[in-house]
Design a protein that fits this description.
single chain; 324 residues; TIM Barrel; 2 domains; 7-stranded parallel beta sheet; 10 helices; 36% helix; globular; binds ligand 9MR
């Protein structure tokens, strides 16, 4: 299939970024709706593509019934545990033989290396941690393994280039492995920017290849696979203030900027290639610039983070990644 045909087919179906999340698959208790996810998975199977499932247990995009006791209060520990098992077991069995790897737990560690707890602000807090304690992570992996012993099970998170966060993730993974928990790999979300931030309090201040390399070394030293799971390179630099007049448009996404983005992609892929024995997959968070989460927010702020442009033609970044 040509790139154009593949892209057309992709956009004729649905995007895969949200269709396997808890709220998409189990909007009401024990009613599983697989239609949208099945369309993507079947398309991928027909076209010989490998599929990663995203995500079984996460603090976000959950249905409201999940953490509720149905009487205005919080669900009990036992009931939440059995809801988690029911979800994981149903979903993983449904896709068994088609989805080769799962993001079992997503975003459980904070920037300072601590667990994402229940005491954070809405939208940030983890009700899983609040109700079940940190043991929910080990349980999620055990349930997923029980449902599909052949699936590769991943812990997935962002900002792996921050030293304190990568250490926190390492410590958690080491603890899981020491307890015999079936975890097989780490996903690096890899939502990058065209350059690191110059603001020392900004997370992206640490967004250097050398820091990412440290994360890859640390995780693979545990014998875990590493996968790049949600790659994109935004044109916006964290810590810089933009407004409607400085938002990028097709006109201001100049050849110079395209070359700069390509160089940033090249720099990351040079690192990935150096660690080819540890890195077993690279997945982009989208295909072409006309459909990216980075243009979903801050109305009017369009971004151009992927390898294909709005018309689905390859960009200089595509050449940088492919020609080496
Ligand atoms: O790309 C997803 C976007 O369409 C949703 O609005 C958003 C809601 O939280 O989730 C996005 O995907 C996220 C992924 O599930 C986890 N890592 C960060 C991704 C970008 O926010």
């Amino acid at each position: 299939m040509t790139h154009a045909a593949l892209l057309k087919a992709h956009f004729n179906s649905v995007t895969a970024e949200n269709e396997m999340k808890f709220e998409s698959l189990q909007r009401t208790e024990n009613n599983f709706t697989y239609d949208a996810a099945d369309r993507i998975v079947n398309f991928a199977v027909e076209n010989n593509m490998k599929i990663r499932g995203h995500a079984l247990v996460w603090h976000s995009q959950n249905p409201s019934w999940l953490f509720s006791n149905g009487a205005g209060g919080t669900v009990s520990r036992d009931v939440l545990q059995s809801r988690m098992r029911n979800h994981i077991s149903n979903v993983v069995r449904h896709f068994r033989g088609k989805v080769y790897a799962w993001d079992v737990v997503n975003e459980a560690i904070m920037e300072d290396g601590s667990y994402r707890s229940g005491s954070l602000a809405d939208g940030q807090r983890s009700r899983w941690h609040e109700i079940l304690g940190e043991g929910y992570i080990a349980q999620a992996f055990r349930y997923a393994h029980e449902a599909d012993p052949d699936a590769k099970l991943f812990y997935n998170d962002f900002y792996n280039y921050i030293p304190a966060k990568q250490q926190g993730i390492y410590n958690m993974l080491k603890g899981l492995l020491d307890q015999g928990v079936p975890v097989h790999g780490v996903g690096l979300q890899a939502h990058f920017n065209i350059e690191p931030s110059t603001v020392s309090t900004n997370q992206a201040y640490y967004q250097h290849v050398a820091n990412l390399e440290e994360a890859i070394k640390l995780y693979s030293s545990l014998g875990l696979e590493v996968q790049v799971t949600e790659l994109d390179v935004s044109l916006y630099i964290p810590g810089v203030t933009y407004n409607a007049s400085t938002f990028y448009t097709a006109a201001t996404f100049t050849d110079e900027l395209k070359a700069k983005q390509a160089a940033r992609y090249r720099e990351f892929f040079e690192l990935f290639r150096r660690y080819r024995s540890a890195i077993t997959g690279v997945t982009f968070w989208g295909i072409a610039d006309d459909n990216t989460w980075l243009s979903e927010f801050s109305s009017g702020r369009k971004d151009f983070p992927l390898l294909f442009d709005d018309d689905h033609n390859p960009k200089p970044a595509f050449d940088a990644v492919m020609d080496f």
